[in-house]
Protein backbone atom coordinates (compact mmCIF):
# COMPACT_ATOMS: atom_id res chain seq x y z
CA UNK A 1 0.00 0.00 0.00
CA UNK A 2 2.28 2.79 -1.24
CA UNK A 3 1.73 6.52 -0.76
CA UNK A 4 -0.27 6.23 2.46
CA UNK A 5 0.22 9.95 3.08
CA UNK A 6 0.01 11.21 -0.49
CA UNK A 7 -1.20 14.83 -0.72
CA UNK A 8 -1.07 15.11 3.08
CA UNK A 9 0.79 17.89 4.89
CA UNK A 10 2.60 17.11 8.12
CA UNK A 11 4.22 19.48 10.59
CA UNK A 12 7.19 17.99 12.47
CA UNK A 13 8.50 19.74 15.56
CA UNK A 14 11.70 18.70 17.28
CA UNK A 15 13.85 17.39 14.45
CA UNK A 16 17.29 18.13 15.86
CA UNK A 17 19.65 15.81 13.97
CA UNK A 18 19.71 12.70 11.79
CA UNK A 19 19.80 10.38 14.84
CA UNK A 20 16.54 11.71 16.28
CA UNK A 21 13.29 9.79 16.12
CA UNK A 22 11.76 12.85 14.48
CA UNK A 23 14.14 12.36 11.54
CA UNK A 24 13.13 8.70 11.24
CA UNK A 25 9.48 9.76 11.21
CA UNK A 26 10.17 12.49 8.65
CA UNK A 27 11.85 9.96 6.34
CA UNK A 28 8.91 7.57 6.66
CA UNK A 29 6.40 10.34 5.98
CA UNK A 30 8.29 11.46 2.88
CA UNK A 31 8.49 7.86 1.66
CA UNK A 32 4.70 7.71 1.86
CA UNK A 33 4.24 10.93 -0.13
CA UNK A 34 3.67 13.52 2.60
CA UNK A 35 4.58 17.17 2.23
CA UNK A 36 6.52 18.27 5.29
CA UNK A 37 6.95 21.47 7.26
CA UNK A 38 9.87 21.36 9.70
CA UNK A 39 10.59 23.68 12.61
CA UNK A 40 13.77 24.73 14.36
CA UNK A 41 14.43 26.39 17.71
CA UNK A 42 16.79 29.34 17.52
CA UNK A 43 19.46 30.26 15.01
CA UNK A 44 21.88 27.67 16.37
CA UNK A 45 19.63 24.87 15.08
CA UNK A 46 18.57 26.55 11.89
CA UNK A 47 21.40 25.40 9.61
CA UNK A 48 21.23 21.80 10.85
CA UNK A 49 17.49 21.57 10.22
CA UNK A 50 17.79 23.28 6.84
CA UNK A 51 20.48 20.77 5.81
CA UNK A 52 18.25 17.87 6.87
CA UNK A 53 15.31 19.45 5.06
CA UNK A 54 17.38 19.61 1.87
CA UNK A 55 18.30 15.94 2.25
CA UNK A 56 14.63 15.03 2.72
CA UNK A 57 13.46 17.21 -0.15
CA UNK A 58 11.55 19.53 2.16
CA UNK A 59 11.11 23.12 1.04
CA UNK A 60 9.56 24.65 4.15
CA UNK A 61 11.43 25.25 7.39
CA UNK A 62 10.06 27.71 9.94
CA UNK A 63 11.19 28.89 13.38
CA UNK A 64 9.27 27.80 16.47
CA UNK A 65 10.21 27.82 20.14
CA UNK A 66 7.33 26.00 21.85
CA UNK A 67 7.96 27.86 25.11
CA UNK A 68 7.05 31.15 23.42
CA UNK A 69 3.37 31.69 22.67
CA UNK A 70 4.15 34.38 20.13
CA UNK A 71 6.16 31.94 18.00
CA UNK A 72 3.39 29.35 18.14
CA UNK A 73 0.91 31.99 17.00
CA UNK A 74 3.26 32.99 14.19
CA UNK A 75 3.58 29.35 13.15
CA UNK A 76 -0.20 29.01 12.85
CA UNK A 77 -0.36 32.28 10.90
CA UNK A 78 2.33 31.08 8.49
CA UNK A 79 0.42 27.86 7.84
CA UNK A 80 -2.85 29.73 7.29
CA UNK A 81 -1.22 32.33 5.04
CA UNK A 82 0.15 29.62 2.78
CA UNK A 83 -3.30 28.09 2.51
CA UNK A 84 -2.10 24.82 3.98
CA UNK A 85 -4.52 22.13 5.05
CA UNK A 86 -2.61 20.55 7.90
CA UNK A 87 -3.24 16.83 8.24
CA UNK A 88 -0.83 15.68 10.93
CA UNK A 89 1.52 17.03 13.57
CA UNK A 90 4.48 15.25 15.14
CA UNK A 91 5.51 16.59 18.55
CA UNK A 92 9.00 15.25 19.24
CA UNK A 93 10.05 17.63 21.99
CA UNK A 94 11.40 16.90 25.46
CA UNK A 95 13.99 18.43 27.76
CA UNK A 96 15.26 18.21 31.31
CA UNK A 97 18.33 19.67 32.93
CA UNK A 98 21.21 17.22 32.80
CA UNK A 99 21.84 17.75 36.51
CA UNK A 100 18.29 16.67 37.33
CA UNK A 101 18.83 13.43 35.42
CA UNK A 102 22.16 12.71 37.06
CA UNK A 103 21.17 13.10 40.72
CA UNK A 104 18.49 11.30 42.76
CA UNK A 105 14.90 12.24 41.90
CA UNK A 106 14.40 13.43 45.48
CA UNK A 107 16.91 16.18 44.76
CA UNK A 108 15.14 17.49 41.66
CA UNK A 109 15.17 21.27 41.70
CA UNK A 110 11.90 23.20 41.58
CA UNK A 111 13.02 25.09 38.48
CA UNK A 112 14.17 21.86 36.85
CA UNK A 113 10.85 20.13 37.56
CA UNK A 114 8.88 23.01 36.07
CA UNK A 115 11.15 23.28 33.02
CA UNK A 116 10.88 19.57 32.23
CA UNK A 117 7.09 19.73 32.40
CA UNK A 118 6.81 22.95 30.39
CA UNK A 119 8.94 21.71 27.52
CA UNK A 120 8.05 18.01 27.57
CA UNK A 121 4.34 18.04 28.45
CA UNK A 122 2.70 21.47 28.37
CA UNK A 123 4.19 22.17 24.94
CA UNK A 124 1.84 19.53 23.48
CA UNK A 125 -1.13 21.50 24.79
CA UNK A 126 0.27 24.72 23.37
CA UNK A 127 1.03 23.16 19.99
CA UNK A 128 -2.40 21.51 19.74
CA UNK A 129 -4.13 24.79 20.56
CA UNK A 130 -2.13 26.59 17.86
CA UNK A 131 -2.56 24.07 15.05
CA UNK A 132 -6.08 22.71 15.62
CA UNK A 133 -7.71 25.64 13.76
CA UNK A 134 -5.56 24.80 10.70
CA UNK A 135 -6.59 21.14 10.74
CA UNK A 136 -9.85 21.92 9.00
CA UNK A 137 -10.57 18.38 7.90
CA UNK A 138 -9.31 16.66 11.03
CA UNK A 139 -6.12 14.66 11.21
CA UNK A 140 -3.62 13.27 13.68
CA UNK A 141 -1.40 14.70 16.40
CA UNK A 142 1.42 12.41 17.53
CA UNK A 143 3.92 12.66 20.34
CA UNK A 144 6.72 10.47 21.69
CA UNK A 145 6.87 8.98 25.16
CA UNK A 146 8.77 6.26 27.04
CA UNK A 147 8.11 3.42 29.48
CA UNK A 148 9.66 5.51 32.26
CA UNK A 149 6.29 7.26 32.48
CA UNK A 150 4.78 4.29 34.32
CA UNK A 151 7.81 2.39 35.63
CA UNK A 152 10.80 3.60 37.58
CA UNK A 153 13.76 3.68 35.20
CA UNK A 154 17.12 4.35 36.81
CA UNK A 155 18.41 7.85 36.01
CA UNK A 156 15.29 8.82 34.04
CA UNK A 157 14.01 10.71 37.08
CA UNK A 158 12.10 13.94 36.38
CA UNK A 159 11.73 13.07 32.71
CA UNK A 160 9.70 10.00 33.66
CA UNK A 161 7.31 12.18 35.65
CA UNK A 162 7.07 14.63 32.75
CA UNK A 163 6.31 11.78 30.34
CA UNK A 164 3.51 10.62 32.67
CA UNK A 165 2.03 14.11 32.40
CA UNK A 166 2.47 13.97 28.63
CA UNK A 167 0.54 10.70 28.36
CA UNK A 168 -2.30 12.09 30.44
CA UNK A 169 -2.28 15.16 28.21
CA UNK A 170 -2.70 12.87 25.18
CA UNK A 171 -5.89 11.41 26.67
CA UNK A 172 -7.43 14.76 27.58
CA UNK A 173 -6.62 16.28 24.20
CA UNK A 174 -8.00 13.22 22.43
CA UNK A 175 -11.26 13.62 24.33
CA UNK A 176 -11.64 17.30 23.46
CA UNK A 177 -10.40 17.26 19.87
CA UNK A 178 -12.27 14.12 18.80
CA UNK A 179 -15.33 16.19 17.88
CA UNK A 180 -13.14 17.91 15.26
CA UNK A 181 -12.00 14.53 13.94
CA UNK A 182 -8.50 15.18 15.28
CA UNK A 183 -6.90 12.09 16.78
CA UNK A 184 -4.19 12.34 19.43
CA UNK A 185 -1.83 9.47 20.20
CA UNK A 186 1.64 8.75 21.54
CA UNK A 187 4.30 6.27 20.49
CA UNK A 188 6.26 4.73 23.36
CA UNK A 189 9.51 3.76 21.71
CA UNK A 190 12.13 1.51 23.22
CA UNK A 191 15.51 3.07 24.00
CA UNK A 192 17.28 4.32 20.88
CA UNK A 193 20.72 5.89 20.52
CA UNK A 194 19.60 9.48 20.09
CA UNK A 195 21.53 12.58 21.15
CA UNK A 196 19.10 13.22 24.01
CA UNK A 197 19.29 9.59 25.21
CA UNK A 198 23.04 9.91 25.58
CA UNK A 199 22.37 12.45 28.32
CA UNK A 200 20.99 9.65 30.51
CA UNK A 201 23.62 8.16 32.79
CA UNK A 202 24.60 4.54 31.98
CA UNK A 203 22.41 4.53 28.87
CA UNK A 204 24.47 1.78 27.25
CA UNK A 205 23.53 -0.54 30.13
CA UNK A 206 19.85 0.12 29.41
CA UNK A 207 20.35 -0.86 25.76
CA UNK A 208 22.10 -4.05 26.77
CA UNK A 209 19.40 -5.00 29.27
CA UNK A 210 16.54 -4.37 26.83
CA UNK A 211 18.17 -6.37 24.04
CA UNK A 212 18.60 -9.32 26.40
CA UNK A 213 15.13 -9.10 27.97
CA UNK A 214 12.73 -8.02 25.21
CA UNK A 215 10.82 -10.86 23.50
CA UNK A 216 12.38 -9.98 20.14
CA UNK A 217 15.87 -10.01 21.74
CA UNK A 218 16.92 -6.70 20.25
CA UNK A 219 16.53 -2.97 20.62
CA UNK A 220 14.13 -0.75 18.72
CA UNK A 221 15.05 0.38 15.23
CA UNK A 222 14.18 4.05 14.51
CA UNK A 223 12.57 2.99 11.24
CA UNK A 224 10.02 0.98 13.19
CA UNK A 225 8.98 4.14 15.02
CA UNK A 226 8.66 5.92 11.68
CA UNK A 227 6.41 3.18 10.31
CA UNK A 228 4.22 3.27 13.43
CA UNK A 229 3.87 7.02 13.00
CA UNK A 230 2.78 6.52 9.38
CA UNK A 231 0.08 4.11 10.57
CA UNK A 232 -1.25 6.57 13.16
CA UNK A 233 -1.18 9.50 10.72
CA UNK A 234 -2.78 7.64 7.83
CA UNK A 235 -6.28 6.39 7.18
CA UNK A 236 -5.19 3.02 8.53
CA UNK A 237 -5.22 4.53 12.01
CA UNK A 238 -8.48 6.44 11.60
CA UNK A 239 -10.13 4.65 14.55
CA UNK A 240 -7.26 5.07 17.00
CA UNK A 241 -7.09 7.97 19.44
CA UNK A 242 -6.03 8.57 23.03
CA UNK A 243 -3.68 5.59 22.89
CA UNK A 244 -0.07 4.81 23.72
CA UNK A 245 1.37 2.55 21.00
CA UNK A 246 4.42 0.62 22.18
CA UNK A 247 7.20 0.11 19.65
CA UNK A 248 9.82 -1.48 21.89
CA UNK A 249 10.41 -5.06 20.69
CA UNK A 250 7.88 -6.13 23.35
CA UNK A 251 9.94 -5.07 26.34
CA UNK A 252 6.96 -3.48 28.17
CA UNK A 253 5.25 -6.86 28.71
CA UNK A 254 8.14 -8.39 30.63
CA UNK A 255 8.43 -8.79 34.38
CA UNK A 256 11.37 -10.35 36.19
Quick structural gist:
By secondary structure, this protein is of the alpha/beta class. Helix content is 43%, strand content 15%. The chain is globular.
Describe this structure in words.
The chain is built from eight helices and seven strands; from the N terminus they run βαβαβαβααβαβααβ. By secondary structure, the chain is of the alpha/beta class. The protein has helices at 21-31, 43-56, 69-81, 98-102, 110-131, 157-177, 203-213, 222-233; strands spanning 9-13, 35-40, 60-63, 88-91, 139-145, 182-189, 244-247. The protein is globular, with a radius of gyration of 17 Å. Strand 2 (35-40), helix 2 (43-56) and strand 3 form a beta-alpha-beta unit. Helix 3 (69-81) runs parallel beside helix 5. The protein is 43% helix and 15% strand. It has a seven-stranded parallel β-sheet, sandwiched between helices.
- Shape label: globular
User: Mind telling me the C-alpha Rg?
Assistant: 17 Å
Strand order of the largest sheet: 3-2-1-4-5-6-7
Average of per-residue pLDDT values: 94
Number of strands: 7
Total domain units: 1
Number of helices: 8
- Given helix and strand content, the structural type is alpha/beta
**How far apart lie the N and C ends?**
39 Å
Report strand %. Answer: 5-15%
In CATH, the architecture is 3-Layer(aba) Sandwich
The largest pleated sheet is described as: 7 strands, parallel
> What is the fold-level CATH name, i.e. the topology?
Rossmann fold
